[in-house]
Amino acid sequence: MGLLYGLIAVGLALIFGLMDVVNFAHGEFLMIAMYATFFLFAYFALDPLLSAPLVAAALFVFGAVAYLLIVRFAVRAKANAGMVQIFSTFGLAIVMRGLAQFFFTPDYRSVTHSWLGGKTVSVAGIFLPEPQLMGAAVSILAFGALYFFINRTDFGRALEATREDAGAVALVGIDKNRVFALGWGLGAALVGLAGAIMAIFFYVYPDVGASFALIAYVTVALGGFGSVFGAFAGGIIVGLVEATTALILPPSLKSVGIYAVYLLVVFIRPRGLFGSI
Amino acid sequence: MDRAFADRRRRELIIAACLAALAALAPLVVKDVYVQNIMVLTLMYAALSQSWNILSGYCGQISLGHALYFGLGAYSTALLFTKFGMLPWFGMLGGGIISALIAMALGYPCFRLRGHYFVIATIVIAETALLLFQNWDWAGAALGIDIPVRRDSWLTFQFTRSKLPYFYFALALAAVAWFVTWWLEDSKWGFWWRAVKDNPDAAESLGVVVFNSKMGAAAVSAFLVAVGGGFYAQFVSYIDPESVMGFQFSLLMALPAVVGGIGTLWGPILGAVILIPLTELTRSFIGGSGRGVDLIVYGSLIVLISLARPQGLVGLFARRRTGAGA
Fold first, then answer.
1. pLDDT tens-digit profile of B4-62?
2. Nearest chain B Cα distance for residue A162, angstroms
3. Do A214 and B301 touch (CB under 8 A)?
């Protein structure tokens, strides 16, 4: 679970690191990814594992379009830039939730069976559900791919350079908007991947994103804004803390542990564990 | 203080008094209970947003956890009334004082945080409080508290037969919040806050006690919001953790200021007057289907306004005025 949190958070961290924007619709991106997985399953009997790359690709397009239609203008705002970003992406989140209610109704849906669904494997006497294990494996793979992508490809270098100094990059002839749009696409694709896996073991409903979004923000901030690695590490910590809290406190209070750890960390180290700002 | 500035300050006060007087006469014309209900909510949100604006707009410490103070006000009022039979007036005042103290206690560690770290800390604290209240059996847990109906009077702050007393109280609350903002804007605090917002390091070096001025803003802001919470509890006579302390509520409280113009005197009022009736009307006319059309309309509106007028709608008027004067 921690690795999946990490995967969701990495998408958010990528966008933030790139352009200092917190996407308040991140949870809703996750929600549509889960719906997409569900419908691919319901109509084409496509196993979530197979549809995951499709969903990620679809989310990539969605993220890039969201950037071009909305965020591009929010970044340009001269007055109250912070509030404009928060409320334009938050407005987008409300619209997406409304659209989901309109088209899919507020019913709870679930992927009833998957190649992995319900199976468990036993590792050294501990029973682990396979979907979660698979999620962990996909997360690690995706994180490795992202790492390679950022460090080894031209586009990755452009991404890094734009993040360091967007002005100078324009002089070298890199189109800032294109890089940002691709960054948004990539961030959304990662959350799409996470959504496809999560659809196996979570109900899908219009508000599902909201419950994960806050955890994603906490994860990113815990790891430190501006650090993709921090977000992934933050995800693992959050997953562990959540599991430990669930043992001590009633299940309805399991998030309290995560929040407490976040507050503790930033009070001691105000820029998160691996943050640079 | 130069003459023109003093004149402008006085003019603002006169305009506000005229608007308040006009608003006070409104119920004589508007008899429809449904519309009166919307008017009460509009005034309440104007007051809340104005209070939020003190900390987040003027002082620049963006809080998305103000639902905490609203919830504390609502809960102290409801709990003191149902468990100890104390009049809501004590609850509102007590809730206000508790909230101001808690805001300062939380400010102590939180004001060291900057930017998004601060914003997320405010959300997380409010969310933790929400979870605790949802699990707190004595306070009604997730089911919330039903406030029993006594006879109508100003003493019990319950009015079942007419919305008017609520209307006048909400009007008074909005007027107080406006007046406090107006008064603080031109005080030492107001200048400190703007300095802290623009550049905390420079402010510090010029002798502004940054930390104390943030604490002051947090306390005033939390106190006023909590009184609003106490009012809300009496007005709807039923509260539950999600509806008074949820994250949504923190955003709803901030929205009028954002739409109207944050860090401005008139922004929150203008924003509330535009947004709240619109929200209520879309909800009742097209939201009835339960299919989220109201959310789509509302969300699109927020996106459009925040993109089209980042400085808020108040800017529209200001530009016209300076344009005419120049």
1. 777 777 888 888 788 887 877 777 777 777 888 888 888 888 888 888 888 887 887 88
2. 21
3. no
Phi and psi at A109, nearest 5°, equal -125, 155
Is A220 in contact with A234 (CB distance < 8 Å)?
yes
Q: Tell me if ipTM is over 0.85.
A: no
- Going by C-alpha positions, the residue among A206, A188, A123 that lies closest to residue B293 is A206
Q: Are B78 and B91 in contact (CB under 8 A)?
A: yes
Give the residue, B157 or B171, on which the prediction is more confident: B171
The residues near A131 (Cβ < 8 Å, ≥ 6 apart) are A114, A116, A117, A197, A200, A201
Identity of the residue in B128, B300, B315 whose CB atom sits nearest the CB atom of A95: B300
B251 touches chain A (CB under 8 A): yes
Number of C-beta neighbours around residue A109 at 10 A: 17
Q: Quick one: tokens of A8?
A: 């969701």
Residues paired with A126 in a beta bridge: A123
User: Which residues of B fall within a CB distance of 8 Å from A255?
Assistant: 127-128, 131
CA-CA distance, B186 to B136, in Å (whole number)? 43
Whether the CB of B318 is below 8 Å from some CB of chain A: the reply is no
Short-list A203, A207, A218, A273, CA closest to A12: A218
Question: Any bridge partners for residue B146, and if so which?
Answer: B238
Which stretches of chain A score pLDDT less than 50? none
Other CB atoms within a 10 A radius of the CB of residue A115 amount to 13
**DSSP for B189-232, written as a single string:** HHHHHHHHHH-HHHHHHTT--HHHHHHHHHHHHHHHHHHHHHHH
CA distance B161 to B150: 12
Place of tokens 């702050």: B157
> Which pair of structure tokens corresponds to residue B101?
């103290």
